[in-house]
Amino acid sequence: MTAQLKSLTASPGADSEGDVSEEEDQDEPEWEFPPFILLLDPPQYDDELRALIEWVEGVLVPGYLAEPSNDTRWCHLWTEHPIAIARLHALWLAWQELTDPSTCGYLGPSTWHRDHYDPCMRELRVSSGPFSGCTKGEHQIAHRLPVLVPSAWSRNEKEGWPAFR
Predict the structure, then answer these.
(1) For residue 154, what are the β-bridge partners?
(2) The predicted structure's pLDDT at residue 104
(3) Predicted model pTM
(4) Contact, 131 vs 75, CB < 8 A?
(5) In the chain, where the domains are located
(6) Which positions of the chain have pLDDT values less than 70?
(7) How far is CA 46 from CA 25, 32, 57, 156, in A?
(8) 84 contacts 131 by C-beta, under 8 angstroms
(9) What values do phi and psi take at 164, rounded to 5?
(10) Cis preceding linkage at 43, omega within 30
């Protein structure tokens, strides 16, 4: 490789061999962008969830979500549904990026609705979605959680049928 090509492909802070110095490597932030909520541990998870709750309850629910029905469900305890947290967090991250005209232009909100909001709400609010057991006045989380994982099954020697360990 020529010296000119090496200098063009080397990252900033790299020596002539293309290695980044240890000092430069330590100064880099761990995340360049906000991390996905399910990758966080407390207290970062708690902080991110609080911010998500503010957005969902302050922007999404009053501005977008009509009255729940059998066909379009919503759970007032949505924070107890991990799938809802994951999907809504992804929706919120997209909203943050696509509603700022200085970074996304004027088409950002349209793109957010088409590519993010509509598919997310279809998945969350469908009758077979994460809120399927929840009704207007009743919350059910246990209906979705597996009681037992397949590896917990064993053969009952006496009866020959699967039994719990």
Answers:
(1) 163
(2) 83
(3) 0.65
(4) yes
(5) 35-136
(6) 1-33, 68, 70, 136-165
(7) 28, 20, 16, 43
(8) yes
(9) -70, 145
(10) yes
